[in-house]
Amino acid sequence: MIALPERVRSPWWELGRRLLAALGILVGTTLLVWFDRDGYRDGNDPTNTISLIDAIYYTTVTLSTTGYGDIAPVTDGARLINAFVITPARIAFLVLLIGTTLEVLASQGREMFRVARWRKHMGHHVVVIGYGTKGRSAVETLVGNGLNREAVVVVDPSATALQDAHADGLAVVTGDATRRDVLRRAGVAEADQVVITTDSDAANVLATLTVRQQNPDARIVASVREQENAPLMRQSGANSVITSSDAVGRLLGLSSLSPTLGSVMEDLLTYGEGLEVAERELLVTEVGKAPQSLPDQVIAVVRDEKVYRYFDPVVTLLARGDRLVVVRPARELPWAPRPGTHDEDFATDED
Q: Domain end: 120, 147, 172, which one?
């Protein structure tokens, strides 16, 4: 079975196309009456001659079903043409005009209702600025970790990004993310997180400043191409900065030195396969234990918003409120259940 992509056009384009079709029916019917003018009689004209204006007049009142009756077909041929040609044309003409108008109004009404309902429920969402390779990977990782696609808003000026994001089931605001009105339409002021992934470091810095101005509390994760721009990005308000070119360069270097090590690192960075790096809550049963003794491979402990390596003396024993950064199988297996998946209690500070 072959499925071709659906062509989505503007309602106004459809309306214009159908109006042209209606005009074609009007012109064609007028010519038909004009060429067969000897078969018609004008009750208001003693000479009974049908001019081109009379043909246009007869066509408009006939296709619009007004039908004054002053001009009428009198010969058998003209009546047959009216019955089998002009009458179907009249029906098609009305369907084109009335049906298209209703379709445009209904389409616009549905779209306005959908946007209004979406805005009403928008809040605590994630805004992704830039929907290229990095943006798509970020969204898929977020969705794979439980985020609803309806809670993601993409901001990108590209028509290609618009099509890709819509194909992925995401809401899109088309425009330049460095403009305040564009970010306002994306609901940045109510967003919990903003991911900035454009290909320009300058645009990323300006977008970060604009986002931070509208939402001082949002968590901003931004990418930069050059390491030297990372401090500037942090000064602009980004909470986390990822250097894409350096990360790729390090991975290439590791793969050159050790193909095995490079494949392991790539596995860790690839979501949904093999191994994954994840952050999780500490369980009540794990309080007071050493990080090395847990079922998961703990590589770091987050305590009081600071990150400690698992061997740091500060986190020799785990305490309530700690969060763990672990390496574990990407897919849970029956013989290796993930902690926290069987209604265990979490050891948070509120306990």
A: 120
